């Protein structure tokens, strides 16, 4: 019999969550580096370079890879010979570890969890509670796998109840393009097959805890139907040409993970959950000999990748932008932004829209300005602001027409594509949408020279900030004529891959 101390589990969970906030798994870094080396689309290659640079910066500076530090998911297997020396329940111990990790004074993580999700949506302020899956198993140890899942990837999860005769590969190929690029490819796809609807979803989530090993699988060849499926899905998805950040390119997924479970004769439940470019998970085992702390990796194992904007880059003073300037920007063009911008996410947009409907003045003047879709991490030390990468822009689509029409806003900055409603609003109002790289939050934050809350302080990280930036890198994703690189780019690269038989990872 093994006695596990309450504090050991708390300390181990807290340590794991701090660790994965700033360390990518090395297998992911190596996979992205290989994809970067092979990429032929300059825009996608550029995006992956920023992801790799950001990863090394975070590993060195011990700050979050992404501003979205996730909802915590825990898979815990408790040996049946284990006894606990604890006053708290198992869930309470885990949540206390989460609480301490997210409030760590040297690396405070963003609290993203809202209580009363269908009502007041009140921030719990410490990112609790975690989503916990517990199993009792033979043995005398406690095995724990911890992940932090950002909303951008988690929200792209898909579930289907297929007919037994349906092709899973066909369903994945049909479904992945509907996910858009808000899940920040290149990443992984976790797929759960079988059981019931909820079992398939849990299997998909759990599969993403496994290491990236599809290249080893490809070299040795598949041994069973699941391994055959992994290879078939990986190849089929990458042939879609979606590419890094949805810009078009050779690599959309770095691996496909699958777990399955027996199912009813009339059923074929399939769930798919992506892992984004901020892949974060860790594993530890408690043996009764104290906390299980993570071992820091060797920073020298990160590739030395540089990013240069190139000669064609256009420098933009945000305080002097007018309609003629915006009209001159071309789809895919790289810009370096300097000057003042405002921030605003879902909650801020909803409140602003309500104020406009009621004839109330807004607390900020958006005429001639840009709004950045971001909820930053709180600063630590001498930081102006913590990691501040873009959030998924499609969530703001339904507000776009009203905001553009009634405020005089000239442009928006966010992550991934815009939907047809937003694109039409951008075209109608001769505005523009710019894209920053998801998965490069710490790198982006270094371009912010001043940050202060100017409205809606009660919304926490969803408040409106005024940012002053210097050479913040973005690309023109939707121009004032409504041309979207997230529509044109994948089409071009899908055709090139097919016609030229380009080698994929």
What would you say this structure looks like, in words?
A hairpin with an 8-residue loop joins strand 18 and strand 19. The protein is built from 15 helices and 19 strands. Among the domains are: 126 residues, no CATH class; 176 residues, Alpha-Beta Barrel (fumarase). Helix 1 crosses helix 4 and helix 2 packs antiparallel against helix 3. The chain is α/β, with parallel strands linked by helices and 505 residues long. The N and C termini lie far apart (47 Å). The strands form 5 sheets. Strands 14-15-16-17-19 form a 5-stranded mixed β-barrel. The radius of gyration is 23 Å and the shape is globular.
**Main β-sheet: number of strands, strand sense, barrel status?**
5 strands, mixed, barrel
Query: Under the CATH scheme, which architecture of the domain at 314-489 would be assigned?
Result: Alpha-Beta Barrel
Number of helices: 15
CATH class of the domain at 314-489: Alpha Beta
| Widest β-sheet, arrangement of strands | 14-15-16-17-19
Low-confidence stretches: none
Q: Helices and strands: which structural class? A: alpha/beta
Tell me roughly what share of residues is in helical segments: 25-40%
Tell me how many strands there are. Answer: 19
Approximately what portion of the residues adopt beta-strand conformation? 15-25%
Report, as a whole number of angstroms, the end-to-end distance. Answer: 47 Å
Q: Which of globular, elongated, flat, extended, rod-shaped describes the shape? A: globular
Q: Determine Rg (CA atoms, Å).
A: 23 Å
Corresponding CATH superfamily of the domain at 314-489: Fe-S hydro-lyase, tartrate dehydratase beta-type, catalytic domain
CATH topology of the domain at 314-489: fumarase
Mean pLDDT, all residues: 96
